[in-house]
Design brief:
heterodimer, A: 172 residues, mainly alpha, 8 helices, B: 404 residues, Hypothetical protein af1432, three-stranded antiparallel β-sheet, two-stranded antiparallel ribbon, globular
């Protein structure tokens, strides 16, 4: 649990933009399943992309412990989550032995830090389907099927972007 | 020969109607086996009337599937095949449960990479049930069932599959709708009751927001969340029920060892031979297990954390867990956590409602739901003969922590 807490708090400390629970769900998914940071969260594919109930529980526990502040965003995108002073102090004092590879956290933040929830849904669903099917054509076909709200151009562009960034790699 | 429609009477929902395919599935011996799997493991040793099985729960979830799919197809075009696959998925969602349901996972009795859902997938694939389903509903129905039931290890083939998974397994899905009412009824408690009709009536769907409830359903959802909260604190995380599950896990391990096995068989047909009665018989033939269960010689609860421990306390309790497990065996102690309970209470993050002109999370829309705090309690149970020794170990541990 301490390692998980550490990654969640560290991520929130490093991100400079306003983020919510969707950011944490998708960022931890990418860290775990695409950047090989082993945290043991079990993910399922829900309507809005990969989601881990266990991670949701951990976020609630961290919030209940008073280490992060969760507020509702007036812009309509759900939540704002930020590490507060108590969380920063706790991270420094208790969790420094669990500090993870910061370059991975930076990578996921640069990928998602300024994304809106719709963009995160698109990006993480492409990654999830790619992981399961290991096939580019099938991934694209399924994306068009299950996410009709995104245009073909949006899906293709995002897929190419992920491949250019070296995150999404389809087997040859 | 199966009739067109058969009606089965159920104590919770009244008549449940099955078509020919559904009747054939229910008549399969591997489905009938669910009659011999307690829905709530050892709970009847605490609440004696909790003797209901996975069989009637599966029928109950199937029945709710028929109702919700009827509602949803007003908003989402569905084919007859879509509808039947969803209904069959609901009927079969618990087919992989082994003896005493969740005890197996908790005691890590499955082999590597297996759990009851994975076994369910294998049972559907390897037995006549799979043949019946693929013959009637097409070759891709097996993969669709896997995704609808598990939400992983298969991909959705359409938007309908994603909605179906949410309807079945979501935080306010029909699996939970059924077991809260059923468990309450059979236990003789009222904690799990809520307004089912209102919940079903206010269910909505659109392509942008997915599954959600209209504003008029918020109070029924609040009731539903409270029902989960109370059932967790009063039943699922009951201190005696939890230690009984621990003992039962030990008993099953012992049974497997007596058959030269370290874990449950991964072979489907071998797995299906082990159900509750097999283990109860083993219990009755073994003096030690008779003493534990019949004479109620359970480990004693001797120490527990607050329900909402401070973060430093959580780390200390985790350290205590490591140290206790290094020094003592599972025969001496049982370290339990609310987080490990298969029925743990979670907030309503994924439940979405139309409120104040847009669809948003129930947590955002409901002050009452927002005020419910996650329970993070940890407990230490100790065997009678070592209560003094282990208690001293724990006292010393916390004393050292305090003194730095």
């Amino acid at each position: 649990m301490a390692r998980r807490f550490s990654v969640i708090l560290e991520l929130l400390s490093l991100v400079k933009t306003k983020v919510g629970k969707t950011f944490l769900q998708k960022a931890i998914y990418i860290l775990q399943d695409w950047l090989n940071l082993k945290l043991g969260y079990d993910y399922e594919l829900y309507f809005y992309g990969p989601y881990s109930e266990e991670l949701s529980d951990d976020i609630d526990i961290i919030s209940d412990s008073g280490l992060i502040d969760i507020g509702f965003d007036a812009t309509g995108y759900g939540y704002n989550i930020a590490v507060n002073d108590k969380g920063a102090e706790f991270l420094k004092k208790n969790l420094d032995t669990y500090i993870v590879d910061k370059s991975k956290l930076d990578k996921v933040i640069s990928l998602l830090g300024t994304s809106d929830v719709k963009n995160m849904e698109l990006l993480s669903t492409i990654l999830y389907l790619a992981k399961e099917t290991k096939d580019k054509d099938q991934t694209m076909r399924l994306m068009h099927e299950i996410k009709p709200q995104f245009s073909s151009e949006e899906i293709d562009r995002k897929s190419e972007e992920l491949q250019r960034q070296g995150i999404l790699v389809f087997p040859q | 020969m199966a009739n067109d429609i058969v009606n089965i009477r159920d104590g919770i929902h009244g008549f449940i109607s099955l078509n020919e395919l559904e009747q054939k599935i229910v008549q399969e011996p591997h489905f009938q086996r669910l009659r011999f799997i307690h829905q709530l493991g050892t709970t009847d040793w605490v609440y004696p009337s909790a003797v209901h099985s996975r069989f009637e729960h599966s029928l109950g979830v199937f029945h709710l599937a028929c109702i919700v799919v009827d509602r949803i197809q007003k908003y989402l075009p569905l084919t007859d095949q879509d509808i039947e696959i969803f209904k069959v998925a609901c009927l079969l969602h618990d087919i992989g449960h082994g003896p005493f349901s969740h005890v197996l996972e908790e005691a890590s009795l499955f082999g590597a990479g297996l759990d009851h859902e994975k076994m369910g997938q294998k049972i559907i694939e390897k037995t006549r049930i799979g043949k019946l389903v693929t013959r009637e509903l097409g070759q891709d129905s097996y993969n669709r069932l896997t995704y609808i039931i598990r939400g992983k290890e298969a991909v959705p083939t359409s938007r309908a599959d994603m909605v179906f998974h949410d309807l079945l397994a979501g935080q306010a899905g029909i699996d939970r709708m059924d077991y809260l009412l059923r468990d309450s009824h059979f236990l003789g408690v009222k904690y799990g009751n809520y307004d089912l009709q209102r919940l079903l009536e206010t269910l909505r769907y659109n392509d942008d927001d997915g599954l959600h409830w209209e504003e008029g359903g918020i109070h029924a959802l609040e009731q539903f969340i409270l029902a989960r909260y109370f059932m967790f604190t009063e039943v699922y995380f009951h201190k005696t029920r939890r230690v009984l599950d621990h003992h039962l896990g030990r008993l099953i391990k012992d049974y497997l060892r007596s058959h030269d096995k370290e874990s449950l068989p991964s072979n489907v047909y071998e797995y299906l031979k082990i159900f509750d009665s097999v283990l109860l018989l083993y219990m009755m033939e073994n003096e030690e297990w008779k003493r534990v269960f019949l004479s109620r010689h359970f480990l004693k609860l001797k120490r527990e954390s607050p329900e909402h421990p401070e973060p430093e306390e959580v780390l200390s309790w985790e350290e205590l867990e490591r140290e206790l497990k290094e020094k003592y065996s599972n025969d001496d102690i049982f370290f339990d956590k609310a987080k490990n309970d298969p029925y743990k209470f979670e907030t309503a993050e994924q439940i979405r409602v139309y409120y104040d002109k847009k669809v948003r999370s129930l947590t955002e829309a409901s002050l009452l739901v927002r005020s419910l705090r996650p329970i993070n309690k940890m407990r230490v149970y100790i065997v009678q003969g070592k209560v003094k020794e282990v208690t001293k170990f724990i006292d010393d541990f916390f004393k050292n922590k305090r003194e730095g």
